[in-house]
From TrEMBL:
Protein name, as recorded: Mucus binding protein Mub
Biased composition (Polar residues): 153-164, 849-858, 879-894
Segments of skewed composition (Basic and acidic residues): 165-178
Pfam families for the chain: Adhesin_P1_N, GbpC, Gram_pos_anchor, Muc_B2, YSIRK_signal
InterPro entries in alphabetical order: AgI/II_N, Glucan-bd_C/Surface_Ag-I/II_V, LPXTG_anchor, Mub_B2, SA_I/II_PAC_V_sf, YSIRK_signal_dom
Gene source species: Lactobacillus hamsteri DSM 5661 = JCM 6256
TM regions (residue ranges): 913-932
Biased segments, Low complexity type: 109-119, 129-152, 803-816
Coiled coil: 228-272
Boundaries of every Gram-positive cocci surface proteins LPxTG domain copy: 902-939
């Protein structure tokens, strides 16, 4: 079939020409599938008309709007189903003014036909809103044939424009009709492809891989077009499969020739083994004929978990075999039963029947302590490595039993089928029966697992019956041949045991670098069931127990040719009929793309708000629909485009499902936030009670601007904050008789930013007032000594009237001493013998709020009154009261200031000043008494 794309390409390049498709009779008998496919659907080929034996012929008329001025043509495509062989002829002729009618006729071989067997479908261009005119088509029906005739009108003005007259309306098929047609096509369309695949499966070495169907969606008007697409794809697959099969057959033929040659040489080699007594057809099994589905791969990255099961088992240190076996667990005594469990997980290279083995669990049991002298200085226990196939090394033990279980990727215990799994026990060294050094392996049969020995040709290991199952070991001394380094005496002994030919052939069989001869010391168990249990023993007391799933090969060194394999991958086709049709309105959040500067949007630029999707389904083609848009503004969205697609509000249901997209972005608004900072100062006494009302400063308010996303509710606080604000200095109030610990509080500079917005920035201070202490009582000075009394005057000899003694003047009351301004002292006042006066203390001098007396060595001063009393022998007492010496002579008045400080008084300075005043009073009294005595003497 000529594809639509190719036809349109030709029409574009050719002007004064037209295409005529005709179908002629071509009878197809019972042709093979390959012949049918060769001639079916050949695109762009010129062939002769063909005769079709099938009933269904679909003529697809592809039309373009008749109003178009250029490239307006009508084409006819003839499609046949996959059971038909169609040959179409495409001829190109110059277009004349007079265009003759062209017709396509189909004659069917059956006796009954109707116009219904011929489907005429008019395909309109997708999303085309203008009317489309169809071609003029007439169908004449005869008893034995049906003819479809299409007339092409005359062309005007020699341009490539074809006007068609619609003589008969073609009824559009219903959805149910189209569905039935698609079901029928799907039941038949892959038959040829399936036939080829089924035949390929029968060929040796061919594997078939079927993929999920290639689903081709179709509408009601393009079923034939999409059917042709599937047929073409199936044809291509058939061609590729046939080509691959031809190549495989050639490779298979070459393989068979090489295999015959290999088998011939192998048979000759086996005959040599028979001559040596190493192959017995009645006993030995050919390893090449064993089917092994169990694979233990090297697991370098396995995770090893160890669980001791007996108190006599403890973890030890050390390694064996150059660090290969780097885990050592010490067994301190004979243990009957399980004593250690080792689990290997995270396996990647182990399989059974093609399925991954994800975990191998090995349980060690029955550690029988050895008393062999060679083991006296060794620690009993077992060494094992990080991979199960490393095996284990047992020390100071006559025997150890190993139980092995396998689990699949789902953690399910694996059960081995009959004749599908084999375990090779390698390197079974022996010095011959009757010696201590004989390595043995015994299969332990149980109710859910079993095994048996398999006799291998070329092996020195033979099968012996044991109490629990077969035992594998060598009756003869194969230890002589394990290494190529052999003495002449050992060689002579080996020849006596084995014969020269075997010694020459198998010397060095246990070489770690050359494993080509390992079969000589290997044994094989066939195993089945839900586990494998093997007892390893050696009377010498130690051995390396190894096991694997690699079946040893005979030493025949010819390389066996590899059988060729081919995998055929095929994919059936399937037509999928669209639903009646529908229209869907999608709302897409493209806010991220908007932020990146995108202006032309596709659905990939954002994500769909699936909860808001609006669908109009199950409507007939041509029905109108109206849609009420989702109120996106309530959700905080606004349009990301200038307008909304018209189909979002109303439209017409088309053949194809419509998807209309409304692109939205997030609406934002500017918001502010404030941060208030307060200052509070508490004034308290020492006991916590309030000393003065709290000081509360005017709060500081800081503001920042942000952008709020009305969809998410998130706010981006990216604006600048109000700049730094300050709480000014606050002077603490003065309280009489108390001293404050903080005369001033502040200032504080407050800064608010995003880093401390959530912090408490309030300033709270507490000022404590301490009561001034009471002054100390002054010390009373000692009484001054009593002044001497003057002698009585002498009586003259001639008594005369004696003169009366002069009465001394009353002593004046001494002035109250002033508070000295410096460190100098003032003399005390004179005191009369006859007069007794007391000097009252001056009232305390309290500094005003405007002045503060600050002594030289103290921050504060305190007022203290001290009184000194002086008495004489004649009981004339003078009381001297010193003024309060709360101010030192060096004290000065402080200057008045706007921020007056609370007066500070110091008890220590007050006491010193009081004592100083008392001393001045005493000195003054003494001085006064001396003056009185002097006057008396003078009198």
């Amino acid at each position: 079939m000529v594809s639509r794309k190719n036809i349109q390409e030709k029409l574009r390049k050719i002007e004064e020409k037209r295409e005529r498709h005709s179908i002629r009779k071509f009878t197809v008998g019972a042709a093979s599938v390959l012949i049918g496919l060769t001639f079916m659907g050949m695109a762009s080929q010129q062939v002769k008309a063909s005769e079709i034996t099938q009933d269904t012929v679909a003529v697809e008329n592809s039309t373009i709007d008749s109003n178009s001025e250029a490239n307006n043509v009508a084409t006819e495509e003839v499609a046949v189903n996959n059971d038909s062989v169609g040959n179409s002829e495409v001829t190109t002729e110059p277009i004349e003014n007079e265009v003759s009618e062209s017709s396509a006729s189909v004659t069917e071989n059956n006796n009954s036909s109707s116009a219904d067997n011929s489907s005429v479908v008019t395909e309109s261009t997708k999303n085309e809103s203008s009317s489309v005119a169809g071609p003029s088509t007439s169908v004449s029906e005869n008893e034995n044939s049906s003819q479809v005739e299409t007339s092409t009108p005359n062309q005007e003005n020699n341009i490539n424009q074809v006007q068609t007259e619609k003589t008969e309306d073609v009824k559009k098929p219903s959805y149910e009709d189209s569905k039935a047609e698609v079901d029928k096509i799907n039941g038949e369309i892959n038959k040829d492809l399936e036939d080829v695949v089924n035949k390929a499966e029968e060929i040796d070495g061919v594997t078939v891989d079927k993929k999920d169907p290639n689903k081709v969606t179709t509408g009601t008007t393009d079923i034939d077009k999409n059917k042709a697409e599937i047929i073409a794809n199936n044809k291509k697959q058939i061609e590729e499969i046939l080509k691959a099969l031809e190549e495989h057959k050639a490779a298979l033929k070459d393989y068979e020739g090489k295999l015959d040659e290999y088998n011939k040489k192998r048979d000759e080699y086996i005959q040599q083994l028979k001559d040596l007594g190493l192959w017995d057809e009645n006993e030995h099994i050919d390893p090449d004929k064993l089917s092994q589905l169990l694979i233990f791969g090297k697991e370098e990255n396995a995770t090893v978990t160890v669980k001791p099961l007996n108190p006599n088992v403890v973890q030890g240190t050390g390694s064996m075999l150059n660090g290969l076996l780097n885990n050592f667990w010490q067994v301190n005594d004979t243990v009957h039963g399980d004593f250690l469990q080792v689990t290997y997980t995270d396996l990647k290279n182990s399989f059974y029947a093609g399925e991954l083995i994800s975990k191998i669990e090995i349980t060690y049991s029955d550690f029988i302590m050895s008393n062999h002298p060679s083991q006296n200085n060794r620690k009993p226990g077992i060494y094992f490595g990080k991979s199960p196939t490393d095996g284990f090394f047992y020390v100071k033990a006559e025997s150890v039993t190993m139980g092995l279980k396998m689990y699949d990727a789902n953690g399910k215990l694996i059960t081995l089928g009959e004749n599908t799994a084999y375990i090779t026990i390698g390197s079974l060294n022996s010095k011959g029966e009757g010696n201590d050094y004989v390595e043995k392996a015994e299969i332990i049969n149980g109710s859910s697992h079993k095994g048996e020995g398999v006799a291998l040709p070329e092996s020195s290991v033979t099968i012996h019956k044991g109490p629990n199952g077969d035992i594998l070991y060598s009756d003869k001394n194969n230890e002589l041949l394990y290494d190529k380094n052999i003495t002449d005496a050992e060689r002579e002994l080996a020849i006596k045991i084995w014969g020269k030919d075997i010694v020459d052939k198998y010397l060095g069989w246990d070489d770690s670098k050359d494993r080509s001869k390992e079969i000589f010391g290997s044994g094989l168990f066939k195993v089945s069931g839900d586990g494998i249990k093997i007892k390893f023993s050696n009377k010498l007391g130690s051995a390396w127990a190894t096991f694997s799933t690699t079946i040893p090969k005979i030493t025949f060194d010819a390389e066996k040719p590899e059988k060729p394999t081919t995998t055929i991958t095929w994919q059936p086709g399937q037509l999928v009929l669209n639903k009646n049709s529908s229209a869907h309105i999608h709302y897409v959040d493209v806010n991220g793309a908007v932020l990146n500067g995108v202006t032309n949007f596709t659905p990939e630029h954002g994500f769909e708000l699936s909860d808001q999707k609006q669908s109009h389904e199950h409507l007939a083609i041509g029905d109108k629909y109206d849609n009420i848009l989702w109120n996106w503004e309530e959700a905080g969205y606004i349009l990301a485009t200038d307008t909304v697609h018209p189909g979002a509000t109303n439209g017409v249901i088309t053949d194809d499902v419509q998807h209309i997209y409304v692109y939205l972005k997030h609406k934002t608004e500017t918001v502010n936030r404030d941060k208030e900072v307060n200052q509070t100062i508490h004034y308290v006494y020492e006991d916590g009670t309030t000393a003065a009302p709290d000081h509360v400063s005017i709060k500081l308010v800081f503001t920042q601007t942000g952008v709020k996303n009305l969809v998410t509710g998130q706010i981006d606080w990216n604006g600048e904050w109000t700049k730094t604000q300050t709480f000014v200095t606050v002077v603490s109030p003065t309280i009489d008789g108390y001293t404050t610990d903080r005369p001033e509080v502040g200032p504080y500079d407050i800064i608010v930013d995003n880093s401390n917005f959530n912090d408490n920035l309030d300033k709270v201070d507490t000022v404590v007032y301490t009561k001034n202490p009471s002054p100390d009582k002054p010390e009373i000075p000692e009484d001054p000594t009593t002044p001497e009394i003057p002698d009585k005057p002498e009586v003259p000899e001639n008594p005369t009237n004696p003169e009366q003694p002069t009465i001394p003047e009353d002593p004046t009351t001494p002035d109250t001493p002033e508070v000295p301004e410096d460190d100098s002292t003032s003399p005390g006042p004179e005191i009369s013998d006859d007069v007794e006066e007391s000097v009252s203390p001056l009232p305390e001098k309290t500094p005003s709020n405007e002045e503060t007396v600050t002594p030289k060595s103290q921050d504060t001063s305190k007022e203290t009154s001290k009184v000194a009393t002086i008495s004489s022998k004649n009981e004339k007492n003078a009381v001297l009261t010193n003024l309060s010496t709360g101010e030192k002579s060096s004290a000065t008045k402080t200057a008045e200031s706007d921020e007056a400080a609370l007066p500070q008084t110091g008890e220590k300075d007050t006491n010193k000043a009081g004592m100083f005043g008392a001393l001045i009073a005493v000195i003054g009294s003494l001085f006064g008494l001396a003056q009185i005595k002097k006057r008396k003497k003078n009198n």
